[in-house]
Amino acid sequence: MGTTPLLKAIWHAFTALDVDKSGKVSKSQLKVLSHNLCTVMKIPHDPVALEEHFRDDDEGPVSNQGYMPYLNRFILDKVQDNFDRIDFNRMCWTLCARKNLNRNHLLISDDDAFKIWCIFNFLSEDRYPLVMVSEEIEYFLRKLTEAMGGSWIEEKFEEYKLQLSSKHQCLNVWELIELVGMGHFSKGMDRQTLSMGINEVFQELILDVLKQGYMMKKGHKRKNWTERWFLLKPNLISYYVSEDLTEKKGDILLDGNCCVESLPDKEGKKCLFYVKCSDKSFEVSASDKKKKQEWIQGIQTCITLLKVGRPAPHHEARQKRRELRQKQQAEQEELELRMRELQTANENKQRELEAMRKKLEEAAANAAEEERRRLQTQSELQDLYRVEMEKEKMVRQQMEEQVAQKSSELEQYLQRVRELENMYHRLEEALEEERQARQDEETVRKLQARLLEEEVSKRAELEQIHLYQQQTISQTQAEKQELERERLVKESALQSAMQQLQQLEDDRWGALEQYEEVMKKLADAANNTKSWKDKVAHHEGLIRLIQPGPKYPQKITNWGPAAFTETELSLREKDWQEKKNRPPTPQ
């Protein structure tokens, strides 16, 4: 069995005996503590062993570190699982509560405070001094709230966590008892409800009671049904006469070979199920189907955990939370280590930059000294060269005359180059104007094509309206008056459509005029381009002439570009006007 929970309780007792908080306790007090521990844990007590262990320290107190080897060797190593842990915890609680528990303004009894103390030892971290981190505080308060039938308020706990920031997000056992006992998270609940909630959480976490409640049990001998109070633990089911647990009637030992199954209703009993063990079976009747299913599921979970050798769910959940915290702490430490490494590297880089700056300053000083020497040498050389320059003066005059002549030739050459560059720029501008004119031509073509499409659409609409009028006139005389009114409406629509058609024709002719204007610009641009090309070719002889496009305007209709000539379009329009004005043939 693990000794960590035992050590936590003993630590509280030892700390309570350390009156001046020096980490040391007198030998006489340790004798009393050791005797009480051996008595409650049913271990033979050897009073001589403590004297032998501390024979060189007869005077003065004994340190915690000095007591630990004795505690491990003569007490904890001899512990068997044959003692009552509640009595053991209550003995340690009595020693420490007398000194540390402040009962003023507490809404809970000493027994409830003792249960919170046990829960704290179960959920606290395995390091000393013992503290409970905020995650375990939230876990405990959440379970307590659920046990009291209340609703967990996450925002309220988050506000409380902000107050814990100054305490490193943790509480000691006496702060936890004060937090629960003052009713900070149980407002609106009476003392009895709070006490019942603490007891329920205590039974689950400390006594490993996974489920409890009244059910009917069938006897093995007389086969009668009797109401019993059942307690489900990870490895057994105990049943009592009542919920005060004063008279125990028996245990159902569970192992991996047990099974639990539902039974049909019989003998006037409903919600039946039985637990089958290796030696006998037990028939039980729950109060309703929901509780029956909860009991079957809880017992099956215990059997499954026993098969795979896993601990109770709350023990496993606590271990997972601790492993997750350890993992997060390791990641945080790794991150801090990386930050320290980056800081060290940054400091090294700063030192390197400082050394480089000093080197640059030294190099600048050396450069200034070198410059002074250079200027001194230059002055000496200037004096030397001045004599030679007088000798070369005649030669230089001759050279200047030659340079002036070459400069005149160079100026002429540069003037010719500038003229060529100017001609090239004008040629590029002419080409750009030609390209823009072609774009305008394309735009006009698209506009003309769209206008022709709209014209054809309107013509088709007018033909439909005319055809509909002819069909309408051929109806019976009884409908003529109504048809006459409709004809007037249609004629109005026809007149409007004719106006729209005329507008489209005007737009089309306007587009043709724009197109002709664009074509004229294009022709001018092409002539201008050709003239510049001739000039460039005259100077360079390497520029290829760009041939202009066609100068005449190209007609575009809905049948495609240049499908009809202007004369053909006029004939087609005249023919269509005659057909439109021709009176309809009477039916």
UniProtKB/TrEMBL annotation:
UniProt cross-references to InterPro entries, sorted A to Z: EF-hand-dom_pair, EF-hand_SWAP70_N, PH-like_dom_sf, PH_domain, PH_SWAP70
SUPFAM superfamilies for this protein: EF-hand (SSF47473), PH domain-like (SSF50729)
GO molecular function annotation: DNA binding
Keywords: Cell membrane, Cell projection, Coiled coil, Cytoplasm, DNA-binding, Membrane, Nucleus, Phosphoprotein
Secretion signal span: none
GO cellular component: a single term: lamellipodium
Main location: membrane
Ranges where the record places region Disordered: 310-334
Biased composition range(s): Basic and acidic residues: 325-334
Subcellular location: Cell membrane; Cell projection, Lamellipodium; Cytoplasm; Nucleus
Residues in PH domain copies: 208-304
One Pfam match: PH
Function noted in UniProt: Phosphatidylinositol 3,4,5-trisphosphate-dependent guanine nucleotide exchange factor (GEF) which, independently of RAS, transduces signals from tyrosine kinase receptors to RAC. It also mediates signaling of membrane ruffling. Regulates the actin cytoskeleton as an effector or adapter protein in response to agonist stimulated phosphatidylinositol (3,4)-bisphosphate production and cell protrusion.
Oligomer status and interactors: The SWAP complex consists of NPM1, NCL, PARP1 and SWAP70.
Protein name: Switch-associated protein 70
